[in-house]
Amino acid sequence: MRSSKSALIGHPPQIELDFQVRLLLVVAALVGSLTVGIQRADAAAYTITHPVHPDHIDNVHWSDTWGAPRSGGRSHIGVDIMGPRMTPLVAANDAVVTWGEFDNAGGNIIRIRDTRGWEYQYIHINNDAPGTDDGNASCLQAFAAKICNTLDGNRIRRGLSFKAGELIAYMGDSGNAEWVASHLHFEVYAPNGEGGVTPVNPTPFVDAAAANPPTPAPDVPDTPLPDGSPWPDISTAVFEIFEAIEGRYPSNAEAGELSQLLQNQSVEETLADVIAENNSAAMVDRLYLIFFGRTPDADGYDYWIDERSHGESLEDIAEWFAQSAEFQRRYGGGTFGDFLNRLYTNVLDRDPDVQGNRYWLDQLERGDVNRGTIVVYFSEGKEAVARSRLRTERTVLERILTGERPTENEIAQWVSLRADHNLADAIDILLG
C-alpha cells in the first residue's frame, strides 16, 4: 500500500515514487549525481507520451546528453530534441500548468505537473513569425490556442489542464538558443516524496515513448448537435462525457458506441443511457455517500476518478477512505458486530438480517475482508445501489454537464422531479 496517501480525502497528496526508484535516487544523491542506469530504472517505472506530436517524430532527433557541461559551470539536465521550427509539441501526460510565460524576448517556456506529481518543462518554444527569425511571433505561433485565450499579461494561467498528447506549444529557438538550431529542451522532474521534485534524465522516457507510440485517439465524427445541446458536436460530447465519468479518453469501441447513440437518439436519451450505467463516477459517488454520508468534495471526486482511470480498484480506494478521521468518526471503533450494525443502519437504513449479519461477521473475523473493503460490497450491492440511485444520478449528471457537484437542495429537487418523470424526460426538463 502507498503509505504517502493522505487521510484527508479530497486533498490528493503528492504520490511517492515506487520504492525501488526512490532507493536508487537516494543512492545517486549520496554520490552526487544521477546516473543513466538510475534513469532507466525510472523509465521502467513510469511512462510518458512523447513531447513531439506523433505525426512529426520522424522529423526530429535527439541523443543522451544528460549531465554534459554547459556554460557557467552548469550541467545539462534535459534532453535536446532537434527539429524544424514550428514542430507541434504535446503534453507528456494528463497535466496542469504550474508556470509559464509568453516572452519572445526572454524566452517562451511552460511547465506542467501531471496527476501523480511528475513535472515536465518545455524550453525554447518558438518566438518567430513563420519563415523568419524576427523574434516577433504571435502567441498562437508559440502556444496552443487555449493558452493564448487565457493569458494574464504575459503569464500563462496556472491550473490550465491538458490531456496527454494534446497540443501545448511549437518548437523554436527562443531564450538562449537564438544562435543554435531550433529544438525543444525538455526536462522531467520526479516527485521525491518530500513535497518537492528532483530532475531526472528524460532520455529513457523519450526513447520509450518513441518506441511505444500511443494508440491514436478514436475517430469520432464532428457532426453538429442540435442548438441548445450542452456540446457543439458529437466528437466534443463523446470525449467530455468519458472524461467526466471515467477520467480518461474512451476506447475506440466505447467512442463508437457512444457516437452511434448520439447519432440515433436525442442527447437527453443518450445521457440517460450513460447515467444508468455503473461508471466510475457513480461508484466513487456511492463510496463517498456510504463512507462519509455526503456528496464528494470537488478535489476528492476528481482525484479518485482519475485514480480509477489509472487502475486503482474500489477496494484500494476504500482502504484509503477507511484510514480517514471522517470515517472513524462516522463508524467508530468497537467490535465487528458494532461496526456491522452501524454499516447496515447507515447504508441500508435497517437492522442486519440474521443470515447476512452472520456471513459478514464471519468474513471479518477470519480476515477475509476488513472494515474498508467490506464497504465496497455494500456500496455495490443491489440494495445500496437502488437506495442511492436518484442521488447518484444527479451527482453524475452535474459532473458531466458542469464539472461541479450538486447542492443538497438540487438533489432534493431532482428526487421530486424523478417521482413523476423517467430519466430522459427529467434530463430534458433540467436542461430547459
Low-confidence stretches: 1-44
- What is the count of β-strands? 9
CATH class of the largest domain: Mainly Beta
Q: What's the gyration radius in Å?
A: 25 Å
What class, by secondary structure content?
A: alpha+beta
Average pLDDT, all residues: 85
How many H/I helical runs? 17
CATH topology of the largest domain: Glucose Permease (Domain IIA)
CATH superfamily of the largest domain: Glucose Permease (Domain IIA)
SSE pattern, N- to C-terminal: HHEEEEEHEEEEHHHHHHHHHHHHHH
- For the terminal residues, how far apart are their CA atoms? 46 Å
- Which overall shape is indicated by the principal axes computed on the Cα atoms? globular
Indicate the percent of residues in helices: 40-55%
How much of the sequence lies in strands comes to 5-15%
Number of domains: 2
CATH architecture of the largest domain: Distorted Sandwich
What profile does the largest beta sheet have? 7 strands, antiparallel
Helix and strand layout, with pairings?
Layout: H1 19-31, H2 36-45, E1 79-82, E2 88-90, E3 95-101, E4 108-114, E5 119-125, H3 145-148, E6 161-162, E7 167-170, E8 183-191, E9 197-200, H4 203-211, H5 234-246, H6 252-264, H7 267-276, H8 280-292, H9 298-309, H10 314-322, H11 325-331, H12 336-348, H13 354-366, H14 373-379, H15 382-402, H16 408-418, H17 423-431
Antiparallel strand pairs: 1-8, 2-7, 3-4, 3-6, 4-5, 5-8, 8-9
